[in-house]
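Worked example

This section walks through a single chain of length 122. The input is the sequence exactly as stored; nothing has been trimmed or padded.
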Amino acid sequence: MTAETYQFLAAGVLVVHLGWILWVILGVLFTRRRPVLGWLHVVSLFYSILIEVLPWPPCPLTVLEQFLETRAGIVPYHEPFLVHYLDRLVYPDIPVPLLVGCAIAVCLFNLSVYVVRLWQSR
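Given that input, the structure is written out below as tokens.
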């Protein structure tokens, strides 16, 4: 494959990654009365918290994007996805621990919505 193909694939992974982040943040809005989606979103939230808190496992989308960038001849970033893209674009000069804390807070807020829904259904 050509470098341009790898670059195109890396951009596709970036789009999927952004979609994942939107799913984690906004998924709770689409899960009411959809129990399967609700459970998928809860698992996504827990997985996202683990990815942020633990030094392992690395996010597979980040690993894939870095691999494709390397194959395209682009020097890949080595920090987590949130730090590389969101910190530079949306949250300039915010310490990484604060950015990670905010990501975890969003996940915990979403989980609390599920707890309230479960409580109300009983």
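What to look for: Residues 96-121 form the longest helix (26 residues).
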